[in-house]
Amino acid sequence: MDFDIAVLGTGPAGYVAAIRAAQLGAGVCAIERDFLGGTCLNRGCVPTKTFVETALILEKARRAEEYGVVIDNPYCAFAKLQDRKNAIIEKLRNGIAQLFKHYGIELIEGSGTLADKNTITVEKNGSIREIKASKIIIASGSEPMELKLIPFDGKNVLSSTHVLDLDKAPESLLIIGGGVIGCEFASIFHSLGSKITIVEMMNQLLPNEDIRLSRTLQASFKRRGMDIYLKNTAKEVTIKENHVFATFNDGTVVESEKVLVSVGRSLNCASIGIESCGIKVEKDAIITSGRLETNVPGVYAAGDVTGVSLLAHTAHHQGIFAAENCCGMNRVIDYRVIPSCIYTLPEAASVGLTEAAAKGKGISTVVGRFPFAASSKAVIAGETEGFAQIVAEPETGRIIGAQVIGIDATNLLSEIGVLIAKQATIEDVAHTIHPHPTLSEVWMEAAMDAMGRAIHIISRKK
Ligand SMILES: Cc1cc2nc3c(=O)[nH]c(=O)nc-3n(C[C@H](O)[C@H](O)[C@H](O)COP(=O)(O)OP(=O)(O)OC[C@H]3O[C@@H](n4cnc5c(N)ncnc54)[C@H](O)[C@@H]3O)c2cc1C
């Protein structure tokens, strides 16, 4: 064998798996057809959140006088934003390359295909290299899903990848799909000056999230001037004179300079040779055990290809578990606590069960809620939109979920993730001294509200 472990793909599942396996002493190679870091670093989390940072600064600058600061005519110099984004990607990519070098991981450039359970053939510019490894970890990720109705052209009809490489904010942007990616781009490009229209098939934006959270985001988007069409979809799209004309199911016609199609992701399971090894797939995702092993012993899968959550932090975690199991450990992954973060303005985040999901499972709940408008830190920051809520079991007080929308929601959520994992109760949160004034106090108050005794709002008796 050439290597103990060959990893196919270097997104957060693949590069993390490669590093962890090398730490455990394995001889590792990682195969990549594009750039180190995968979707997350090159076309996903990192570039989008770089755009978000600029959007937030711009929004604050527009409101600067409220804070006693005078800034004349703030605007986004788009080329500088792109330069900054590209520099950040480059810096983080180099960081991974350095780690690979340090751990002696061989990066093999090219497109890999499994030939059998111990062999990957790698093609680059017509030449083929055959790699033999005792174990294989498939971490080939996902791509933007295309709509047959309007195939991507990179000019007017854009994927999430294209939209990150624009040279200016479009005058108007129609977004098909109001999920996390669609809403994040809506928020970003609204701040950068585009007129935004969102069309979503379901009856709420962020269809997988708590209804109250989603309605709060929707109301905020509308207040900022976005047009939102729910329970609707584009049934016909034409492009005339460099503009898109979309006709919705209800007959509405929307004209926009560009359209972003964000209707989901296609998993990279096809054309990587998994059929030749007999690896089982269900609903286009590779089936794995809790140890991340496929039905073929010695072949593991991690990240988006497993279809578990399509989030970078899940991919990262799965990469670690797959690597450790490849190296002889016996680690079973626990998916109960997977935070979901939405980097819109206002930010939103959730973990565990919503009230509705708990009800669907026959679990009774008590919910405590606290608005940012009653948090002194949020008032000081001038960001009072939204709320934090905790979902708990009434008899035990055990926390089973939390949702938050408002300032710094994505950072705030981590506390509750740990508490759910450790089976903490609302009493535990209420009796932990939280620093003042901080946003984290919203959890203490929400926990106390669940018991009918919040201090800074009038709690209803539970
Ligand atoms: C716009 C956008 C924003 C996002 N924002 C967030 C966020 O804020 N937070 C979050 O948690 N998640 C976010 N995600 C999701 C996150 O990017 C993915 O869940 C994560 O990248 C999945 O990691 P992965 O390693 O499974 O796959 P990927 O990151 O997709 O990496 C797979 C790699 O495998 C390579 N590859 C595929 N096939 C082959 C082959 N045959 N041969 C060689 N190489 C191959 C690909 O080139 C790629 O580099 C976002 C995604 C998008 C699109």
SSE inventory with pairings:
Elements: E1 3-8, H1 12-23, E2 28-32, H2 38-42, H3 45-62, H4 78-103, E3 106-109, E4 111-116, E5 119-124, E6 127-138, E7 142-144, E8 157-158, H5 160-163, E9 172-176, H6 180-191, E10 195-199, H7 211-223, E11 227-229, E12 234-240, E13 243-248, E14 253-256, E15 258-261, E16 265-267, H8 274-277, E17 281-282, E18 285-286, E19 299-301, H9 312-326, E20 340-342, E21 348-352, H10 355-360, E22 366-371, H11 376-381, E23 387-392, E24 399-405, H12 409-421, H13 426-430, H14 441-450
Parallel strand pairs: 1-2, 1-6, 2-3, 6-19, 8-15, 9-10, 9-15, 10-11
Antiparallel strand pairs: 4-5, 5-6, 7-16, 12-13, 13-14, 17-18, 20-21, 21-24, 22-23, 23-24
Radius of gyration: 24 Å
What assembly state would you assign to the polypeptide chains in this entry? single chain
Approximate strand percentage: 15-25%
The N- and C-terminal alpha carbons lie at a distance of 64 Å
Q: What is the average per-residue confidence, as pLDDT, rounded to a whole number?
A: 97
From the helix content, strand content and strand pairing, which structural class follows?
Answer: alpha/beta
Q: What's the shape?
A: globular
Helicity, as a percent range: 25-40%
Q: Main sheet? A: 7 strands, mixed
Number of helices: 14
Which spans have pLDDT < 50 for at least 5 consecutive residues?
Answer: none
Number of strands: 24
Bound ions, cofactors and other small molecules, one mention each: flavin-adenine dinucleotide
